[in-house]
Amino acid sequence: xxxxxxxxxxxxxxxxxxxxxxxxxxxxxxxxxxxxxxxxxxxxxxxxxxxxxxxxxxxxxxxxxxxxxxxxxxxxxxxxxxxxxxxxxxxxxxxxxxxxxxxxxxxxxxxxxxxxxxxxxxxxxxxxxxxxxxxxxxxxxxxxxxxxxxxxxxxxxxxxxxxxxxxxxxxxxxxxxxxxxxxxxxxxxxxxxxxxxxxxxxxxxxxxxxxxxxxxxxxxxxxxxxxxxxxxxxxxxxxxxxxxxxxxxxxxxxxxxxxxxxxxxxxxxxxxxxxxxxxxxxxxxxxxxxxxxxxxx
Length: 297
Hints:
The protein is of the alpha/beta class. It folds into two domains: 2-108, Nucleotidyltransferase, domain 5 (2-Layer Sandwich), CATH 3.30.420.40; 117-290, 2-Layer Sandwich (Nucleotidyltransferase, domain 5). The chain has helices at 52-69, 83-87, 91-100, 110-121, 157-164, 172-186, 204-214, 231-242, 246-250, 263-276, 289-294, and strands at 2-8, 12-19, 29-37, 74-81, 106-107, 132-137, 142-146, 149-153, 198-202, 228-230, 281-285. The strands form two sheets. Strands 8-7-6-9-11-10 form a six-stranded mixed beta sheet, sandwiched between helices. Helix 5 (157-164) packs across helix 10, helix 6 (172-186) packs across helix 10 (263-276) and helix 7 packs across helix 10.
């Protein structure tokens, strides 16, 4: 059976198409795994509404997704939206755009997002899930999970950038305010985290950092699954990116154009989490929510 999983995130939208085997435990055959820049959370820090230009980009994505799906005999589709859609006063407009192209969008809760993301992040990763903390750094929220405990922080690479980083490159006062906010939010996590556990970081921020580290092109991103990042590497790249303008960041090999402006804020979350809980390294997962959805078919 061929199925499709669609993740409508706050910065990007992702489409995963896979052939599932009838035999239990068999690894799915991935047919398509594509990412599109949609930035649903654009302008969200000023008003809790999805902007018209974001809805237009989402419409373009849905049109392309429908074209790709028509190449396959897809039997079932799961389409979910996360933080930006959860918080938007006009999420009904997003649902309407989806319906135009035959997509039924399920706006999932914070806990659902953390659960599904955790399952997906650990997809084909050689770790013991009982002793893993998963950190999913999104555009408008960051999910943290440990075994059967899940929590969502209202901070992400897009909303933090819009709220705190107004200069190009950002000034010291802006960076200080940003880090203070992140530290405060991390302290609200209601369960204990320990450096004795393995930290797995998923979504665009850690994947991009691994790509920058290895100077990897988009076509080779699958080679980054399981890549390790040390706290020293995270800190050095954090300092380096904050000293570059957005245009200069775009020219770095491994940096997607749609992540150059928000990468420092996303990396700030990863850096602060590793520092606060004394993790010396993290493992990069390039899978995530869409692969978690795949496990639900």
